[in-house]
């Protein structure tokens, strides 16, 4: 029985294994690779090193070494304690990110692995090998190291990932896996021990044994596993369903300047945008939380339009970071997008997309101005029912509906206050337009407005006032 997809084509499984998940989870916040880093966990009652980077190895630190000995070899060692819950959260976010490449993704937490059914993805992304290399490269840009394997069954794909194999058909599984030692198989420690006692050393030796005899000697675990491994029994995988929100964070070596936040923040934004592409969604609200040595700082983005553009989001966040004054070093950075929203995009190429609203320069300029100057410094205009030009508008928040339009013959810009002028210095083009109103609030006026031009060719708006004062004034400029 060969595993098949719902379209009845032979299944093809891509397994991604993360052998350094604990180290990557803690270390991906840093751009420098020459800083010694290690992860510790309790082994035989004491804290020992369970993973380390090249810089730590070069300093003489080794796997299984007690923490005290490791610190004595490298005083600058960045040591983190393993956090299995955080690792599980990382696996779920990686599954959300991988959903952009397959509609069937499974999380295999005990193995720090993901399974992607990629038979249906070949039309979009090419061969399984091409897709595998692309995914590993992009995961590397997020700070995660993965090894991959491809096979017709989930269990064979797991073995293929750990041994760098590509198994094309179910008939090739016996040959490809046969030389592997039985310790490589996904069996319980008791079953492995029993197989060793029976004299088995390789998978091929077990394959030759009749299933009934194997079941009598070892129970159903081994025979059931072999049937699933070889595609002779269905092996349904629980599909992962990505959430409609995003929350992720990174612990940092204490960072006292905002420039040091750009690299980890960029990785978080890349991860977010991958999850958005997977759901064909975008965001309009984004929040960055900075946990300081004492206290907290935050950055809020409220966008004019829904987007999932990494470049645009990072541009706005850089602007906000430049304005931020840190009172204390940052120890943790978090990124939250509480709601994914429908997002229209256009395909700009086979592997590239852009927001439909990207030609709308106005919204991007407004968002950048708000990021640089502050949201309160950039406002819109609300129209009011008043014929007096200086009282016909008020400021509004930009997320309120626009309700202001310029009447024909009226200027784009009003001066802060009418400015006295000599009408003989200007040439009258049109007018007069009489405005006489305001008697009900004590600010009544009677004016005749004219469109005039000065000696430099600029078109202006002037009026002759009769009440409450007399004289000529400039009031506006035409763009």
Task: Describe, in plain words, how this protein is organized in 3D.
Strand 13 and strand 14 form a beta hairpin. It contains 15 helices and 21 strands. The chain folds into four domains: 13-32 and 81-229, Reverse transcriptase/Diguanylate cyclase domain (Alpha-Beta Plaits, 2-Layer Sandwich), CATH 3.30.70.270; 36-75, no CATH class; 246-373, DNA polymerase, Y-family, little finger domain (Dna Ligase, domain 1); 407-477, no CATH class. The chain starts with 12 loop residues before the first strand and ends with a strand. It has 479 residues and is of the alpha+beta class. Strands 8, 9, 10, 11 and 12 form a five-stranded antiparallel beta sheet that branches. The chain has a five-stranded antiparallel beta sheet with strand order 17-21-20-19-18, with no helix packed on it. Residues 346-351 have low confidence and may be disordered.
The poorly predicted ranges are 346-351
Instruction: State the end-to-end distance.
Output: 75 Å
CA gyration radius, whole angstroms: 33 Å
Overall outline? elongated
CATH superfamily heading of the largest domain: Reverse transcriptase/Diguanylate cyclase domain
Chain-averaged pLDDT: 88
Biggest sheet character:
5 strands, antiparallel
Structural class: alpha+beta
| CATH class categorisation of the largest domain | Alpha Beta
Architecture (CATH level 2) name of the largest domain:
2-Layer Sandwich
**Total number of distinct structural domains:** 4
Number of strands: 21
CATH fold naming of the largest domain: Alpha-Beta Plaits
Task: Specify the number of helices.
Answer: 15
User: Hey, roughly how much beta strand do the residues contain?
Assistant: 25-35%
State the helicity in percent bands.
25-40%
């Amino acid at each position: 029985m060969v595993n098949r997809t719902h379209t009845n084509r032979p299944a093809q499984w891509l397994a991604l294994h993360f052998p350094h998940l604990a180290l990557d989870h803690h270390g991906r916040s840093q751009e420098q690779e020459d800083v010694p880093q290690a992860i510790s966990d309790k082994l035989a009652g004491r804290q020992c090193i369970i993973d380390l980077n090249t810089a730590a190895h070069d300093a003489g630190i080794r796997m299984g070494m007690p923490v005290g000995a490791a610190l004595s070899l490298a005083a600058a060692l960045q040591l983190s304690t393993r956090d299995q819950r955080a690792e599980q959260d990382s696996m779920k976010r990686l599954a959300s990110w991988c959903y952009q490449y397959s509609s069937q993704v499974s999380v295999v937490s005990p193995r720090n692995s993901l399974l992607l059914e990629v038979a249906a993805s070949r039309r979009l992304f090419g061969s399984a090998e091409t897709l595998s290399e692309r995914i590993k490269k992009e995961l590397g840009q997020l700070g995660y190291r993965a090894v991959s394997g491809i096979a017709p069954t989930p269990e064979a794909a797991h073995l293929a990932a750990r041994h760098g194999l590509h198994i094309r058909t179910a008939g090739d599984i016996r040959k490809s896996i046969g030389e592997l030692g039985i310790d490589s198989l996904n069996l319980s420690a008791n079953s492995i021990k029993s197989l060793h006692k029976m004299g088995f050393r390789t998978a091929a030796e077990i394959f030759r044994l009749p299933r009934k005899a194997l079941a009598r000697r070892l129970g159903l675990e081994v025979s059931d596993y072999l049937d699933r491994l070889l595609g002779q029994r269905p092996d349904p995988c629980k599909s992962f369903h990505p959430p409609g929100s995003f929350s992720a964070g990174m612990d940092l070596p204490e960072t006292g300047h905002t420039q040091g936040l750009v690299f980890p923040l960029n990785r978080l934004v890349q991860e977010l945008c991958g999850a958005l592409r997977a759901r064909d969604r975008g965001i309009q609200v984004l929040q960055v939380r900075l946990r300081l040595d004492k206290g907290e700082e935050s950055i809020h983005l409220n966008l004019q339009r829904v987007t999932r553009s990494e470049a645009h989001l990072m541009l706005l966040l850089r602007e906000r970071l430049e304005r931020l004054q840190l009172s204390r070093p940052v120890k943790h950075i978090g990124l939250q997008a509480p709601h994914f929203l429908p997002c229209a995009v256009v395909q700009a190429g086979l592997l590239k997309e852009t927001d439909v609203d990207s030609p709308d320069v106005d919204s991007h300029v407004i968002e950048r101005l708000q990021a640089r100057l502050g949201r309160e410094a950039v406002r819109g205009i609300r129209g009011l029912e008043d014929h007096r030009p200086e009282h016909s508008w008020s400021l509004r928040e930009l997320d309120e509906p626009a309700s202001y339009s310029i009447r024909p013959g009226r200027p784009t810009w009003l001066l802060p206050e009418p400015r006295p002028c000599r009408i003989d210095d200007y040439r009258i083009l049109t007018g007069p337009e009489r405005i006489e109103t305001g008697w009900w609030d004590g600010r009544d006026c009677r004016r005749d407005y004219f469109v005039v031009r000065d000696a430099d060719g600029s078109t202006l708006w002037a009026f002759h006032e009769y009440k409450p004062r007399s004289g000529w004034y400039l009031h506006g400029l035409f763009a």
